[in-house]
Design a protein that fits this description.
With 233 residues, the protein is mainly α. The chain is built from 7 helices and 2 strands. It is 60% helix and 3% strand.
């Protein structure tokens, strides 16, 4: 009976090991944050968004001017002139709303432009994930930053760093920490993507940090008051 019991336990153990090798997960958000092409695409999207926003604000300013002039001249206008001026303001308001919806609405111009810029980067990530899945014989790969809610994830099944290696971003020069997961796919606490500090590349932020360091250097340290020494008898 003991031999049969050990045999059954062994079979279940092998089944669990086999199952563990059939799935894994990645953090696509972390991967994209390491890709220069994604950062460039995002900057272009932000630039377009700001330009269109300024254009719409200018159209609103024009409507405000029309309304202000109408209120100032209302007492001097005939009913027909009032109707004409009111229609002009209403038409302008409708034009701005339609334009704003066209640019920033669902599947609007900004949405489509963002898809055009970012889709090639996403396709590159997908290709790398597919290669890693084939190399590691994974049947299913989840995305930790996707719509699926992952309450708990064992780092043993985290293949994010393998995908970064496939993309050529896992070297210390390009990816921090940029280290390969430990044996079995497990990553140490310091190497987990979630624990990687976000470094601002903002020029103002860097200057602010440098100024703080200079102020710290220039500020003299306060000397502690010397303790009263006992008088010698």
């Amino acid at each position: 009976m003991k031999k049969i019991l050990f045999l059954i336990l062994g079979i279940f153990g092998l089944a669990n090991v086999s199952f563990a090798q059939k799935f894994g997960y990645i953090d696509s958000g972390f991967i994209l944050s390491k890709m220069p092409a994604y950062a460039n695409a995002q900057r272009e999207v932000d630039r377009l968004s700001e330009n269109w926003q300024r254009e719409i604000e200018g159209m609103h300013a024009e409507i405000d001017k029309l309304e202000k002039n109408y209120r100032a001249e209302e007492v001097l206008l005939t009913p027909e002139m009032k109707t004409k001026r009111q229609k002009e303001i209403t038409d302008k308001q409708t034009e701005v709303r339609d334009y704003q919806r066209k640019i920033f609405g669902f599947e609007g111009t900004l949405f489509k432009r963002r898809q055009e810029l970012i889709k090639p980067v996403q396709d590159e990530v997908f290709t790398a994930v597919e290669k890693v899945a084939k190399k590691k014989q994974l049947q299913i790969v989840f995305d930790k930053s996707g719509d699926i809610v992952m309450i708990y994830t064992n780092p043993v099944h985290d293949y994010t760093e393998f995908v970064l290696e496939e993309l050529g971003l896992a070297s210390p020069e390009q990816n921090t920490p940029g280290q390969r997961p430990a044996a079995g796919g497990a990553a140490s606490e310091g190497d987990k993507p979630g624990n990687t500090p976000v470094i601002r590349e903002d020029a103002d932020g860097i200057q602010e940090e440098e100024v703080q360091q200079e102020v710290k250097k220039a500020t003299p340290e306060k000397k502690q008051p010397a303790k009263n020494q006992p008088k010698k008898k």
